[in-house]
Amino acid sequence: MAFTTFSRVLRSTFHIQRRLESTVASFTKDEILILLRPPFSNWSNIVREAEKVVGYPTSFMNLRCLLSDEFANLALYLRKLVGSNHLVMQTAKNVLYGDSKNLQPWGLIILLLSKSVKSTATNSNTINQQQRDLAELTEMIRTGHLIHRGIVNVPFSKRSKSTESAIFGNKIAILLGDYLLVTANGMLAGMKNPDILYLISTALRDLSESEFLGDRDGQNMPLPGKPKVSKNDLNITFDTTSINADDVLGKPRKEWTARTVYNGVSLLGRGCQSAMVLGRQSHETQNYAYQFGCHVGLAWQAASELQKLSSDSKDQFCLASAPVLFALEDNPELYKIIDQAKNDVNDVDYEDLKFNILKTDAVDKTRLLYEDHAKKAISFIDNIGKNESVDMIKKLINTF
Taking the CB of residue 300, how many other CB atoms lie within 10 A of it? Predict the structure, then answer.
């Protein structure tokens, strides 16, 4: 499952537009599975190995979405934005056609973790429907959040004929994101487990709070905190209730960790923790799972940001990413480049900024950041168990 649950479905929708217009239900099971398969690559091979360990092709989790009339209608409306520069289309392209290593198969990680332990109730590690629902709703929440972030700010004073496409795109982003979040919340309620409801709700709270940490430009894109001299940037926490913005902003490692944990990593952590709750594991094991999920999510994010800065691509990159924050620490004068474009991050000269970042040790520090979190993730998963599922999780981590 190298693609998120929803992204596979959406990708197949782009490829089968004509057939969707006639009927979605006309597909056979074999046709659907072929459409949902990711491109062939080493990463895809490892994901398929992991699916075998889980016990079934995790593509089956997509069928509910693919055969949904609501989803089919929304996908057809989304088609009208093809060719536009709307952020929701950029989000869709990143999710659908980006490097598959960066698409973070969170659902598969949760299922592998579920299978790594035996339920104390059934004395079996067979994946059940609730565990599959947990994996699916976690990915739905993640993707819904990303879609919502594709909403463009169009002030009333600037609305005209030329902004109609942007306004239409906003409506689609809202409806599409809402559909995923409502469906996920319905599945969460259907599990009738108050402990899991609480854990996932805390992750939803964190996703909301991520939009209010630090400064933003006119399109709500994150801006880095002004660099501060700090001697204590190594003490980090995954307890989001204890994070103080004044204590983390301007301190590269703390700021990056806080932003990344709020912006989805806590969701993966809570999903992993919930998997242990369903398996009726001890509180200690549940905590190990949360720590594992957070560290593996941070390792993934660091690897993704490292790849963008070390590649030849001229695409924009997040100004609050780890390489940028580390570069600001090494050369605070770079903050002037960003501060001059605080109203719109598109005004930043990304090519020049990237050149200056590469002159610092930011890339090396980001690589060490990835290695640190990858090692810690492996350490916590070793505390949970030693079996084929754990070995496969390690294999996924080492392929980042």
Answer: 28
Q: Specify the amino acid at residue 302.
A: A
**Which ranges in 191-334 belong to alpha helices (H)?**
194-209, 245-248, 252-260, 266-278, 283-310, 322-330
Residue with tokens 């609730």: 130
Q: In the numeric block, which tokens belong to residue 302?
A: 């660091």
Where does residue 25 rank: exposed (0-12), middle (13-18), buried (19+ CB within 10 A)? Answer: exposed
168's CB contacts (< 8 A; 6+ apart) are: 80, 81
C-alpha dist (Å) from residue 176 to 133, 144, 146, 268: 20, 7, 10, 21
The helix/strand count (H/E) of the chain reads as 20, 0
What is d(CA 264, CA 269) in angstroms, rounded to the nearest whole number?
9
Torsion of CA 2, 107, 205, 186, to 10 degrees: 120
Task: Give 10-residue mean pLDDT values along the chain (400 residues).
Answer: 46 45 43 41 79 72 58 70 71 53 74 86 77 91 88 78 80 87 94 96 94 88 88 76 89 94 95 95 96 95 89 84 95 90 86 92 95 96 92 89
Distance CA(378)–CA(299), nearest Å, equals 11
Whether the CB-CB separation of 200 and 137 falls below 8 Å is answered with yes
For residue 218, what is the DSSP state? T
- What predicted TM-score, i.e. pTM, was given to this entire model? 0.84
In terms of Cβ atoms closer than 10 Å to its own Cβ (0-12, 13-18, 19+), residue 214 is: middle
